[in-house]
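Support request, please re-run this one:
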Amino acid sequence: MDGFDCIVEIKSFLNASVITDFHAALGQFLNYRLALQMKEADRILYLAVPVNTFESLFQERFIREAVNVYQVKLIIYDPVKEVVIEWRN
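Re-run finished. Output below.
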């Protein structure tokens, strides 16, 4: 993906409650995005999540709707292979 400037917030979702992890990650993401809009409006913020979390938690209706409503841009990555699987705008 050439030609753009982005910031990535990487989350692991390792706590016992992945919903709590998602809530914290979403809150941080929204606050970071607001701060970026105020200081560096040309930068794009992405939330990076492990592929296994994306394939489980991020398939839940509530999570999908939150990602859609709040326009969360995602990077799905494989933490074992250390590669990006997909960029989602």
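The helical segments are 18-39, 51-56, 61-69. The longest strand covers residues 44-50.
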